[in-house]
Structures are given as structure tokens and as C-alpha cells.
Amino acid sequence: MSGLRIALIALAVAGLATGLVALAIVLGSEHDDDISTPWIVLALTLGWSFIGAGLYAWWRRPENRVGPLMTMVGFFWFLGSLSSADDPWVFTIGITLSSLWIGAFAHMLIAFPTGRVRPGFEHAVVVLGWTAALMLPALVL
Questions:
Q1: What does pLDDT average to in each consecutive run of 10 residues of the chain (141 residues)?
Q2: Could you tell me the pTM of the whole model?
Q3: Other C-beta atoms within 10 Å of 110: how many?
Q4: What angle do CA 127, 125, 80 make, to 5 degrees?
Q5: CB atoms within 10 A of CB 67
Q6: CB under 8 Å to 89, separation ≥6 — which residues?
Q7: What's the pLDDT at 36?
Q8: What is the reported pLDDT for 19?
Q9: What DSSP string runs through the chain?
Q10: pLDDT at site 33
Q11: Closest among 108, 26, 28 to 71, alpha carbons compared
Q12: Three-state DSSP state, 141
């Protein structure tokens, strides 16, 4: 088995585990009593879909960066579940990291289909997306 295939399988297992940990955090939270089953299913489906599609794209076209970006969107999506934690430190980290998926998603959309961002306007939009994803939670805190 090739090194890339082993790494992608490991990422798939990590993505499954990350989603299950996110589910456990949300279900075990005491301050998110109004979360319903359809929203939980939707959140899991979104995260796992990005991870799965990204890993497949990465496997089929390893030279293209869209696959890794899609995978990153899925993993960052699950970081938002940390904001449902009851522990104050984990909650704060979760709020801080909860919007990273937006920066990765904007990066992925701008880089599509080649996986590369051209200098100029495209680069500025990607920088703006990542800056907003990092700064907006800081304003909330």
C-alpha cells in the first residue's frame, strides 16, 4: 500500500473519530438543551461529507489541492462543537476556533478547480476569509 493511501485511511479514521467526539460533546452538554436530532444529524452529515469527498478527491487527484482543502473544511467544521462543552477552557477554545471552517471553505471555493489561488483579487479574498474566520470569534469573546 502506498504512503498516500495509508495517510488517507488514517485521516478517514480520524475524521470518523472527530465526528463521534463532536457528537459526544454536543450530547453531553448541559447548556445546549434545545438542540434537536435533525440538527445533530445535519451537522454530522456536513462534516463527514466534506471529509469523505475531500479524501476521495485527494486520492483521485493528489496533485490538486482541492481535496486537502475539502478535508480541512470537514475537520474545522467539527471544531465548532467544542463551543458546546461545559468546561470553560474548552468552551473558549471552541468559540475561538468555531469559524475556521469559513476561512477554509472560502479558500476552497476560490481555489476551485485547480486548487491554487492566483495572486491579486483571489488572494485578497482568501486572506479576507481567513482573517474574518480568526477575528470574528475574538470579537464575540
A1: 90 95 84 68 91 95 93 94 85 89 93 89 93 88 74
A2: 0.88
A3: 18
A4: 65
A5: 22
A6: none
A7: 66
A8: 93
A9: --HHHHHHHHHHHHHHHHHHHHHHHHHH-SS-TT--HHHHHHHHHHHHHHHHHHHHHHHH-TT-SHHHHHHHHHHHHHHGGGGG-SSHHHHHHHHHHTTHHHHHHHHHHHHTTTT-PPTTHHHHHHHHHHHHHHHHHHHH-
A10: 61
A11: 108
A12: coil
- State the pLDDT at residue 83: 83
Return the C-alpha cell found at 56.
Answer: 476521495
Q: What is the DSSP letter of 130?
A: H
**What's the pLDDT at 80?**
86
> Cα-atom radius of gyration of the chain, to the nearest Å?
16
Cell numbers at residue 46, please? 456536513
For the chain, the straight-line distance linking the first and the last C-alpha, in angstroms and rounded, comes to 46
pLDDT of residue 85: 82
What the block records as the C-alpha cell of 104 is 477554509
